[in-house]
Design a protein that fits this description.
Its EC number is 2.2.1.6. This is Acetolactate synthase. The chain is α/β, with parallel strands linked by helices and 620 residues long. Helices cover 35% and strands 15% of the residues. It folds into 3 domains: 181 residues, 3-Layer(aba) Sandwich (Rossmann fold), CATH 3.40.50; 171 residues, Rossmann fold (3-Layer(aba) Sandwich), CATH 3.40.50.1220; 182 residues, 3-Layer(aba) Sandwich (Rossmann fold), CATH 3.40.50.970. The strands form 4 sheets. The chain has a 6-stranded parallel β-sheet with strand order 3-2-4-5-7-6, with helices on both faces. Strands 11-10-9-12-13-14 form a 6-stranded parallel β-sheet, with helices on both faces. A 6-stranded parallel β-sheet has the order 16-15-17-18-20-19, with helices on both faces. Strand 2, helix 3 and strand 3 form a beta-alpha-beta unit. The two termini are 42 Å apart.
């Protein structure tokens, strides 16, 4: 992600001392508090929104926000909500998300969203208050070593004790968060540093020795990758979230159409390549399409772009893509070779990698004429056979109740153009990935790496605040929704009319699916009501989500009749002055297919329960 895209300025290098003094003395800048310096620094780096909640040690920073600051503060109901809202804002806008919390429990409540942003490479700056410098290390009231606690789940963090250091630290934090591989940065500021007096100076001096992200790929590696693509007969472009972070979707489309190679997009890469494009095979991995999973297994060349060969994609690692050579391009050199050795490692920004690869392929084509379609004809015949034989699909319940896949599919089909979708974690997340068509980048936001329940509602809030002219639907489960639904109050009070679809099956759906498949249908503690274990459709649904939504200033609607499905969705789409919550009562036995069981090979993908695809002589 470039600095221009985020609005974060590059810290200025330290000026050399010429040994000469200025003949005209500079007028002394007015003295202000560290807190005032913090807000001014946020304005200078282009931050326009902060999600947070005040408390004792961060309180000095809240006072100058009242003085016509250009920074909008959104008062959340829980710090976890602040972190996920900042993440949704960042993912939807491409800018750095900002959240703020006080010391102790306020800061520790940010750990989950920090870890979430770290796993999914989201540019985030979290600002926390800390006890006064003299009290650090004494177990003072509401003291927590948040720098130590968050070190494994942040790209970098700072502890600021001197008010003079605040502008430089904020500039560096935004620079680190938004460059190289994006990620979360924590700035912990002692209360006396916020209260102390300082002189604000901008731009500050950079002090980031050793931080030099490589963005330009090596030409030799690019040429070798182009050669392999030219020689391959079963190539696959394996596209991850790094392509979205780099703003490289246009370059990806050029490369794909130039080569004619099939494209798979990971859970974090959805939207990087249009779902409706004929070369798109869908999502690979544990719940990926049969065509995408199998294409990677049978490939002779995988070109990984901004992806990290995580376990949910590879399945049993030593059996993943056994015949494929690997071209691995990523801006983070630590990812290359971490899980799968690369035949051609390329360190660089995905946009530059793709642009250079297109040029190199054009040069190769000039030397070796021939249409890619001719080279890949047999490959596409296999791929099309797999797509036709094992398409995505679902059965409607025999009892006439709503199928969750049907609900999500119709929400996608009836949503306005450019709608942003967020999702929690579990079955509804996989169905939303499969049954909504994503043809634009930054329209699918979810917690991929950490798998955070409770992500959807606050992320939708953040996305709507950042993109107020776009419709935003949160696809959530009844389990996930009960973790962070209090942020609907935030949405209602801050003019963020998001729409929430609760896929209510009365259970922790994905856990229940695993209990069905792997635990002999022993449904231990997965039912979310007072009915019998294993019978989510029975018993009283508590809470009543419609009443809960209305109590929080939203419109509440319930839908359990398939005949009313479209009318309910259209009603929700038409309401734009308040958040809308729709409680969709769905059948409890629906499962996510396809599926690769944890710890097994992708060769053992199941298209449906008990249905293992027959690939015939595809290895010949």
């Amino acid at each position: 992600m470039t600095e221009q895209a985020t609005g974060a300025p590059k810290p200025q290098p330290r000026a050399r001392n010429s040994g000469q003094s200025n003949s005209v003395p500079a007028q002394a800048a007015p003295r202000i508090t560290g807190a005032q310096s913090l807000i001014r620094a946020l304005e200078e780096v282009g931050a326009d929104t902060v999600f947070g909640i005040p408390g004792g040690c961060i309180l000095p920073a809240y006072d100058p926000m009242m003085d016509s600051s250009r920074v909008r503060h959104v008062l959340v109901r829980h710090e976890q909500g602040a972190g996920h809202a900042a993440t949704g804002y960042a993912q939807a806008t491409g800018k750095v998300g900002v959240c703020m919390a006080t010391s102790g429990p306020g800061a520790t409540n940010l750990v989950t969203p920090l870890a979430d942003a770290h796993m999914d490479s989201v540019p985030l700056v979290a600002i926390t208050g800390q006890v006064a410098s003299g009290a650090i290390g004494t177990d003072a009231f509401q003291e927590a070593d948040i720098c130590g606690i968050s070190m494994p789940v942040t790209k970098h963090n700072f502890l600021v004790r001197d008010p003079d250091e605040i502008p430089r630290t904020i500039a560096e934090a935004f620079h680190i968060a938004s460059t190289g591989r994006p990620g979360p940065v924590l700035v912990d500021i002692a209360k006396d540093a916020l209260q102390g007096r300082t002189t604000f100076q901008w731009p500050p001096t950079a002090e980031l020795p050793g931080y030099r992200p490589v963005t330009k790929p090596h030409g030799k590696q690019i040429r070798e990758a182009a050669k392999l693509l030219t020689e391959a007969r079963r190539p696959v472009l394996y596209v991850g979230g790094g392509v979205l972070k780099a703003g490289a979707t246009a370059e990806l489309k050029v490369l794909a159409e130039l080569t004619g190679a099939p494209v798979t997009t990971t859970l974090m890469g959805i939207g990087a390549f249009p779902d409706s494009h004929p070369q798109h095979l869908g999502m690979p991995g544990m719940h990926g399409t049969v065509a995408a999973v199998t294409a990677l297994q049978k490939a002779d060349l995988i070109v990984a772009l901004g992806a990290r060969f995580d376990d949910r994609v590879t399945g049993k690692l030593d059996s993943f893509a056994p015949h494929a050579k690997i071209v691995h391009a990523d801006i983070d050199p630590a990812e290359i070779g971490k899980n799968r050795a690369a035949d051609v490692p390329i360190v660089g920004d995905a946009r530059e990698v793709l642009a250079d690869l297109v040029v190199a392929l054009q040069a190769e084509a000039a030397e070796h004429p021939g249409e890619p379609g001719d080279r890949y004809a047999d490959w596409w015949a296999l791929l099309d056979r797999w797509r036709k034989t094992y398409p995505l699909g679902y059965d409607l319940p025999e009892d006439g109740s709503l199928a969750p896949q049907q609900v999500i599919q119709r929400i996608g089909e009836l949503a306005p153009e450019g709608t942003i979708f967020t999702a929690g974690v579990g079955q509804h997340q996989m169905w939303a990935a499969h049954y909504v068509t994503y043809d634009q980048p930054a329209t699918w936001l979810n917690s991929g790496g950490l798998g955070t329940m409770g992500y959807a509602v606050p992320a939708a809030l953040g996305a709507k605040v950042g993109m107020p002219d776009r419709a935003v639907w949160a696809i959530d489960g009844d389990g996930c929704f009960q973790m962070t639904n209090q942020e609907l109050v935030t949405a209602a009070l801050n003019g963020a009319p998001i729409k929430v679809a609760i896929i209510n099956n009365g259970a922790l759906g994905m856990v229940r699916q695993w209990q069905t498949l792997f635990y002999n249908q022993r449904y231990s503690n997965t039912v979310l009501h007072n009915g019998e274990e294993g019978e989510p459709s029975r018993g009283t649904r508590v809470p009543d989500f419609v009443k809960l939504a209305e109590a929080m200033g939203c419109v509440g609607i319930r839908c359990e009749d398939p005949a009313q499905l479209d009318a309910v969705i259209e009603k929700a789409n038409a309401i734009n002055d308040r958040p809308v919550v729709v409680d969709f009562i769905v059948h409890e036995d629906a499962m996510v297919w396809p599926m690769v069981a944890a710890g097994t090979s992708n060769d053992e993908v199941m298209a449906a329960r008990g249905v293992r695809p027959d690939f015939g002589d595809s290895d010949d």
